[in-house]
Design a protein that fits this description.
Blueprint (H helix, E strand, L loop, with lengths): L1 E8 L1 H23 L6 H16 L2 E7 L2 E6 L5 E5 L3 E8 L7 E5 L2 E5 L4 E7 L4 E5 L3 H12 L2
């Protein structure tokens, strides 16, 4: 049974990458119209950025049946965490330089789409992991409920 489900939009990502795609499209059209030989370059970069935008436009988090499921935009990349391996969960604030996306930080792996708020999972093994969210308290509460805390 699902106890928590939330989709966080990556508004900054959508704005920046979407703006880049629009600008590259304008450049590509101009280059094609003027017969420039390298007109394929901005088209190729715009295509790559469009795929990136499809993948990273949102982060979906679901707490269900003792597991925490994460997936970006179209369902890839994704991660499933067995909550029986989690010893502690707390609401935290990321440093701005930790960034967005999937990355390794001094506090372990971070899955983030936007903003600085997150939850930090501490596993029985001692390793930690962070999940960015615009609802840190609600997500913490759902994870704690699944942990029986």
């Amino acid at each position: 049974m699902t106890t928590y489900k939330h989709t966080q939009s990556g508004t900054p990502t959508i704005t920046v990458i979407g703006g880049g795609v629009a600008l590259l499209a304008i450049v590509a059209v101009y280059m094609y119209q003027t017969g420039h030989e390298a007109a394929w370059a901005p088209t190729a970069v715009a295509a790559i950025l469009t795929v990136t935008l499809l993948i990273f436009h949102s982060l979906n988090v679901e707490v269900c049946d003792g597991e925490l499921h994460l997936h970006y935009g179209i369902g890839f990349p994704s991660k499933t965490i067995d909550l029986s391996e989690v010893a502690k969960v707390e609401s935290v604030r990321n440093r701005w330089w930790y960034g967005w996306g999937i990355r390794y930080t001094p506090r372990g792996w971070l899955f983030n789409i936007s903003g600085l708020d997150a939850i930090e999972l501490t596993f029985h093994s001692g390793r930690t992991m962070r999940i960015g969210t615009d609802e840190p308290e609600a997500l913490c509460k759902a994870v704690r409920r699944e942990l029986g805390q």
